[in-house]
């Protein structure tokens, strides 16, 4: 890895074997145990060459030490595992429902105290840095695509005597869109299930931190918790990562175009689009109209999740954990199909409700 390589180059070149005669790609190594006396003994504790290649590549992109986990949510468990019982965690009122559910559960069980703050209320986040032990940020938020002022919050946290740890869920932005460690965050987490994997065929998560001691703690949490990635999943995630820069650029162009078109359609009340990235959310009059649009699409798939090469829509308020989301809001993950075909599909479904 060369320090002067751009992020685009790192996505392609980092985490590859370098010795003569080795394959260009680390193979899938399905191993639990290794012959005694070498650098690895047991994979849950010591990792595998396949996980290590993925971790090296993500670490090179985010600027820290990466650890791969079985899923995005397993990274949250690890981050919480290294906190003392009774710690106070600040989380967004509205963000990925799975994250909020884990924290609600920990609070009910009496393990943690939780403060909930509106994503865009920067003053409240800044004030909370005085009282809390951990700040969990997500930006843009899932599914309402609100932007959080990360530098303002990390600067406030750094200035407090209790120095709360700041964690950023970078799943939507990806390291190509934003590198939170360079903005003062202590830990970055990813659901590589989404854009990094990019093909809706795996579950995997990663933590990244520039602090070697904290990286060791998170790795120890993985060893204790046992939420290790599968061999095939790690290999596929790395394979997906190689094309992340071009997928992001292409799907991002389509998302910008479709956000504009959506805003002009009479059936659409509000378009939420942060100006970059592959996610768009649009609001229809009510739940029934949104359900009819989701059911009326033929090319765009009606399915949960996001970040794959195939475009997907979902009415998030239909999910138990997202009842606060506007009833008519459709989350739209823009993929790599021809944007002209995507718009024809959308326009036909929208014309039928509007
Ligand atoms: C999907 C998602 C997660 C959880 O990831 P899994 O891989 O499903 O466990 C976390 N954060 C965000 C923003 C997500 O979209």
UniProtKB/TrEMBL annotation:
Keywords: Antibiotic biosynthesis, Pyridoxal phosphate. The keyword Phosphoprotein does not apply. It comes from the Bacteria. Its cofactor is pyridoxal 5'-phosphate. InterPro entries: Cys/Met-Metab_PyrdxlP-dep_enz, PyrdxlP-dep_Trfase, PyrdxlP-dep_Trfase_major, PyrdxlP-dep_Trfase_small. The keyword Zinc-finger does not apply. The modification N6-(pyridoxal phosphate)lysine is found at residue 194. GO terms for cellular component: cytoplasm. GO terms for biological process: antibiotic biosynthetic process; cysteine biosynthetic process via cystathionine; transsulfuration. Pfam families: Cys_Met_Meta_PP (PF01053). GO terms for molecular function: cystathionine gamma-lyase activity; cystathionine gamma-synthase activity; pyridoxal phosphate binding. Belongs to the trans-sulfuration enzymes family. PANTHER family: CYSTATHIONINE GAMMA-LYASE, TRANS-SULFURATION ENZYME FAMILY MEMBER. This is Cystathionine gamma-synthase.
């Amino acid at each position: 890895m060369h320090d002067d390589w751009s992020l685009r180059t790192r996505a392609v070149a980092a985490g590859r074997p370098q010795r003569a005669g080795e394959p260009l790609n680390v193979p899938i190594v399905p191993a639990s145990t290794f012959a005694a006396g070498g650098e690895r003994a047991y994979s849950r504790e010591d990792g595998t060459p396949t996980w290590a290649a993925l971790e090296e590549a993500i670490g090179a992109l985010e600027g820290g030490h990466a650890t791969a986990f079985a899923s995005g949510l397993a990274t949250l468990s690890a981050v919480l595992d290294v906190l003392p019982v009774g710690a106070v965690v600040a989380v967004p009122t509205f963000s990925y429902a799975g994250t909020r559910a884990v924290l609600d559960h920990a609070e009910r069980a009496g393990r943690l105290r939780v403060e909930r703050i509106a994503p865009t209320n920067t003053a409240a986040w800044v004030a909370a840095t005085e009282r809390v032990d951990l700040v969990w940020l997500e930006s843009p938020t899932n599914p309402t695509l609100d932007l959080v002022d990360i530098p303002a919050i990390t600067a406030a946290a750094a200035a407090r005597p209790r120095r709360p740890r700041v964690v950023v869920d970078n799943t939507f932005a990806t390291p190509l869109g934003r590198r939170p460690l360079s903005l003062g965050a202590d830990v970055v987490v990813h659901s590589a299930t989404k854009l990094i994997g990019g093909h809706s065929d795996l579950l995997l998560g990663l933590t990244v931190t520039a602090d070697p001691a904290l990286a060791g703690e998170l790795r120890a949490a993985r060893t204790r918790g046992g939420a290790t990635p599968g061999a095939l999943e790690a290999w596929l995630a790395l394979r997906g990562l190689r094309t992340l820069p071009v997928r992001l650029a292409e799907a991002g162009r389509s998302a910008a175009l479709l956000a504009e078109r959506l805003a002009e359609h009479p059936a659409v009340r509000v378009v939420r689009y942060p100006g970059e990235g592959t996610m768009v959310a649009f609001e229809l009059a009510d739940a029934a109209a949104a359900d009819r649009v989701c059911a009326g699409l033929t090319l765009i798939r009606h399915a949960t999740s996001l970040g794959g090469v195939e475009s997907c829509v979902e009415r998030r308020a239909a999910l138990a954990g997202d009842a606060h989301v506007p009833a008519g809001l459709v989350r739209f993950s823009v993929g790599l199909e021809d944007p002209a075909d995507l718009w024809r599909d959308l326009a036909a479904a929208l014309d039928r409700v509007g």
